[in-house]
Write a structure and sequence with these properties.
Its main location: nucleus. GO terms for molecular function: transcription cis-regulatory region binding. Belongs to the cclA family. By secondary structure, the protein is mainly β. About 10% of the residues lie in helices and about 30% in strands. A hairpin with a 2-residue loop joins strand 19 and strand 20.
């Protein structure tokens, strides 16, 4: 059956239905065959050439350039045909761009439309961050908010820069260290690239479907930890975590009983009986080091570093017994979804935008910017428009290795 299907190098364009024309921009409701939703992720696929071992390969989607992803956004967000103009609707909805930033220094701009109502949050988000909530709502994303200029991470606003709004241009800058090499002696090292995906057909278009990385209990504990006072909080979010918290950089490991929100003393629950195994200890959340940072500017005016020592984006290593159980279950079994404990080549920090009510913005991925950062800075930055072609080459190289 696959032999009779057309071989596409660019996936079918979503069906665009115009819903509003404002200041010369036409915004559309985009009917995409598949959307990333809770638990699942979709990447356009195409039929492989004759003689290929794999039935499908990774393909691009139109327009083939750095932009907002058709699949990786809340459906409430309306888009222009080039997927660079966004219009919000009702409560906060978010969208991620279509290529992750994994290492290096990158810059882009977002222009808040003139006479734009509503509010915006701008920042960078990992894949685990929800789309039906604002950027910065959890530990998987970092953001700046328009109304106050506060920076937001773990759902907690902190004083940062000046407010911005309609007509302003916000520069978004991120610097990430080189990705570490996987340990060749440790097959469970999450830095090893491994894909866990299945080719499916949705409304006449092939997609690779995979399980999304789940929210870890360690990240949930980090979000639920008591907040430090604003006077002592720095741009490092982990400074708001008590030193006895398992995710604190000052503590290498801890067990569940060390969590500050757990009951202590006589009111503590009895230890588990011998019939029930104790829950595994919480794993530490690694960071990318002090040189990793996020900064913003408003109309060319630098607001300073908003965040540094960013949380690492690779999945946490699974417990050893979990890896063994999976290894025993795989051989000879049917093609089913498996939770991926490794980097699949698409982890990283994605530029992300959140719109409240009818807010309107336009993404400028470069190379021409209204307010480019200085070229003689400490780090050699690149416009994010260059990341798209680089990312697609990485994906096709992984296809070839499979």
């Amino acid at each position: 059956a696959l032999a009779n299907r057309p071989r596409l190098s660019i996936s079918r364009h979503p069906i665009l239905t115009p819903v509003a024309e404002i200041d010369g921009e036409v915004y559309h409701a985009a009917d995409c065959p598949a959307y990333n939703h809770i638990g699942f992720r979709y990447v356009p696929a195409g039929i492989s050439p004759p003689g290929s071992i794999l039935p499908c390969t990774t393909i691009e989607s139109a327009p083939p350039a750095f932009r907002v992803s058709w699949e990786d956004r809340a459906q409430a967000i309306k888009l222009t045909q080039d997927a660079l103009g966004l219009l919000g609707d009702k409560g906060y909805s978010s969208a991620r761009c279509n290529a992750p930033l994994r290492e290096g220094a990158w810059y882009m701009e977002v222009e808040i439309a003139h006479n734009s109502p509503g509010h915006v949050r701008l920042g960078f988000a990992r894949r685990e961050a929800p789309l039906n909530a604002p950027v910065g709502v959890d530990g998987y994303s970092y953001a700046v908010r328009d109304l106050t200029g506060d920076k937001v991470h773990l759902g907690r606003p902190r004083p940062y820069g000046r407010p911005f709004g309609a007509g302003d241009v916000v520069g978004m800058y991120i610097s990430l260290p080189p990705m570490r090499k996987p340990d060749p002696r440790d097959p469970a090292d999450p830095a090893h690239i491994q894909r866990e995906r299945i080719a499916i057909e949705v409304k006449g278009q092939e997609y690779f479907e995979s399980l999304e990385y789940p929210v870890s209990k360690e990240m949930a504990a980090l979000c639920n930890a008591p907040s430090a006072s604003p006077d002592t909080a720095s741009s490092n979010p982990t400074s708001a975590i008590p030193s006895n918290h398992p995710t604190s950089p000052s503590k290498k490991s801890a067990t569940v009983k060390n969590l500050p929100h757990q009951p202590k003393g006589p009111s503590a629950p009895a230890p588990p009986s011998s019939k029930h195994a104790a829950p595994p200890p919480l794993r530490p959340l690694p960071t990318l080091g002090p040189r990793s940072r996020i900064a913003f500017s408003v109309n060319g005016e630098p607001q300073g570093t908003a965040f540094h020592d960013l949380l690492a984006f690779l999945p946490l290593p699974p417990p050893r017994d979990a890896a063994k159980k999976k290894a025993r279950a795989r051989p000879g079994g049917p093609k089913v979804h498996w939770e991926n404990a490794h980097d699949d080549g698409t982890t990283g920090y994605y530029p992300a935008l959140s719109l409240f009510n009818q807010a309107r913005v336009r993404v400028n991925p470069g190379p021409a910017f209204a307010f480019p950062p200085p070229a003689d800075g400490e780090e050699k930055w690149r416009p994010v428009c260059e990341r798209y072609a680089e990312y697609m080459r990485e994906q096709w190289a992984l296809d070839a290795e499979e």
